[in-house]
Amino acid sequence: MFSVTMVAGKEKQPRGGYVRPRDFSVIQLQDSNELYEQENIHAIIVGLAVDYLTRVAMGSPKEKAFGISIEGANRAEQAGNENSAEKANDLLKRINGLDDESITAACKIATFDVWLRKPFGAALAKGEEETNPDSETISNIRTMVKRSVKFFKEYGPITQDGFTFKPNGYSMKVSSGDGDFLTKDTMWDFKVSKHPIKSKHTLQLLMYWIMGQHSGNEIFKGITKIGFFNPRQNKIMLLDVNQIDKSIIEYVENEIIEY
Which among 32, 66, 125, 176 is least surrounded, fewest beta carbons within 10 Å? Predict the structure, then answer.
């Protein structure tokens, strides 16, 4: 029983990948904002903060946007970390926009995600008390959220965020995984890395698309494209699923997800 991320990361792919990053169309967006070079908290937390704050900025209730964080805090408390749930709820109350306090609280509450996403390593991960973004990191997060909002105003609207693949999308092998955003015809994955998209990321997104088709959930009907948006690079990568060889889709279904 593994997550989509774990399976995609461990899969030995052919040269270039099952879905080659170079097959995606690239659109470089422009603005006058520049990001600071250094950030003082883990890149995963920065990415989660950008993702969740974007959801809130686009109208999602913050209780839903930070739902995994809240559930993670509950798991942390069950594991013996006293007052974790109370701390998470207090942090959630402090998130009211893109001011410094809201962004700091978003980074802190996102540290609880690990208790749900990677519970075996959660005890060793930095917690909310050790996560204190400096002014440069806060500024970068604010800029990336604003870029994300602008992106969705042009390529949206969002039809679903933080989606799963219930009731029928998971398998005996792939038992967990949640996606970022859906628009009318595209499944979007957010990345805030400085580095290029790799084949493990394209495989992960293809797995999400396939799981959506198997899920039996109406929200995935009409999704014909997969795409990445990187607000750090302000770059879009987009691919029509019809351009992917059917034999590859069948292989991922049968041999990787194992339906």
Answer: 32
